[in-house]
Design brief:
13% of the residues lie in helices and 15% in strands. It has helices at residues 57-60, 93-98, 130-138; strands at residues 74-78, 90-91, 108-112, 122-125, 127-128, 142-145.
Length: 147
């Protein structure tokens, strides 16, 4: 085998259809476009959503709401979930990811006060609810807010 002998394997390539090259080609005259009509004309493409002049669906439905660009999305963790850690552990975002409490460290983390906490922890997260702070401090732990 040499470079000048290389060929694609049989059946892997097809010849392109040469339309509009005379009646003998089998694709002459109307060039596979049928007879007349919008789709047979040059430039006769129909844009997506066009419904033949009827008001299209995306214009019939009302506009509703918007997505604010400055919204911060939080991954939520309840303090009842933090009992997985040993007493006195330092809990941060990466340790929550490794224990499977949150999926990734892409979003900021907010600790909520749902449930009870029995062990003291040093917890660092982006935000805490007031009840979560109170319960963590009451259990002998400490809270650190990440900026």
């Amino acid at each position: 085998m040499e470079l000048n002998n290389l060929r694609p394997s049989i059946g892997s390539t097809k010849n392109r259809k040469r339309i509009g090259r005379g009646t003998g080609s089998g694709h002459g005259k109307t060039a596979t476009k049928g007879h007349k009509g919008q789709k047979a004309r040059s430039g006769g493409s129909i844009k997506a959503g066009f419904e033949g002049g009827q008001m299209p669906l995306q214009r019939r439905l009302p506009k509703r709401g918007f997505a604010p660009l400055d919204r911060i999305q939080y991954s939520l963790v309840n303090i009842s979930q933090l009992d997985l850690f040993e007493s006195g552990a330092v809990i941060d975002v990466l340790s929550m990811v490794s224990m499977g409490l949150i999926k990734s460290d892409r979003f900021a983390v907010k600790v909520l006060g749902n449930g009870e906490i029995t062990k003291p922890f040093k917890i660092s997260a982006h935000k805490f609810s007031q009840s979560a702070k109170d319960k963590i401090i009451a259990a002998g732990g400490s809270v650190e807010e990440i900026a």
